[in-house]
Amino acid sequence: MNIRRRFIAGAKCPKCEAMDRIVMLTQDDAEWIECIECGYSENRPTHVDAPEEPAIPDEIGVIQFKPRSSK
Description:
Elements: E1 4-7, E2 22-27, E3 30-35, E4 41-43
Antiparallel strand pairs: 1-2, 2-3, 3-4
């Protein structure tokens, strides 16, 4: 099990607010961040659902304009 580490430039820790102390860790399909200053960690969601279609369609439609015929 190999853990890949990458520092995130310009990131600030949400807990201690230390700048440039956040590292992203990746192992297989899991990703999370950790602060090397205070030890804060946060998991990154691995499964993101696609946005659902609205139950009631909106009232926006496509309108096509046709040029008037010349007389």
